[in-house]
Structures are given as C-alpha cells and as structure tokens.
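residues and backbone:
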Amino acid sequence: MNLDKYDKQILKIIQQKGRISNQELAEQISLSPAPCLRRVRQLEETGLIEGYVALLDARKLGLTLVSFIQISMDKHTPERFDKFENAIQSFSEVLECHLITGQSADYLLKVIVKDMDDFQQFLLNKLTRIDGVSGVHSSFVLKSPVHSTALPIV
C-alpha cells in the first residue's frame, strides 16, 4: 500500500491519540471529515491499523518490576520451540517474547511483575517448568528513559 502524506499523518496521530474524534483528526491533517474517515477505515481494512488499545499505568496497578530474560533451549527443533511459544503465551506476566540470534540465548522475554517475590514465583513455578528450558539469565530494569509504543512513520 502506498501511503501519502495524509495517511502518514493519520498514522502518526492515531498512535499518540487513539481516541481522537474523526472531526479533530480531520482538522489536524487539514482534510474534511468524510475523506479522513474513509482513509482511516481503509488503513484498518488493509490491516495497517491492527486495533486500538488503552495504555495503563503499571505502577498504579502495583507492577513495579520489569525484567528482560534470556532463555536458552536444550534442543533447537521446531517442536521444542512451538511448545515453548505456546506455553509462554499463557503467562500474563510476559509482555513480549522474541526468538533471537546473535546471543547464547534463543529467546528474549520482557516480563512485568509486582516485586522480586512475584518474580521468583514466576521464574520457579512457570518459566523453568516449561519443557526444554535449559538456561535463564535475568536483567532488571532500573530506569526507562525512552518508552514508546509508536512506530516511526517515514
């Protein structure tokens, strides 16, 4: 799909203000409301806009400990990876899971929990019980000077 300047502006704004009204969006990009709405619907229909979410304040929910966990698997088979990926999807603590290269680990997880006690429970009662997990290396986030959900639109 070829994106023109209006499409790009729509995508930039919607990433920052998902609940913006069509009227306000149209005004911000200097387009009348009807064509603006058509463009948004087209971006949704093509799958470029996958959905809309509410961003929550983790601290206000008591979720204060963020960690990145490198996971090593004992076997590098599609079946072993599939089982791991299926298991990890059921854990609400896991915000992201990436199959990676260039490290001694196979997966990189981003995990959020209340505190170190919750982390220990997650690690011992969930993560290390998945068949094939042979190594776990955890790093804890001290500060996040950059945190964004918006993708760069160029």
Summary: The radius of gyration is 20 Å. Residues 128 and 153 are 39 Å apart (CA to CA). The chain has two domains: 5-45, 59-140.
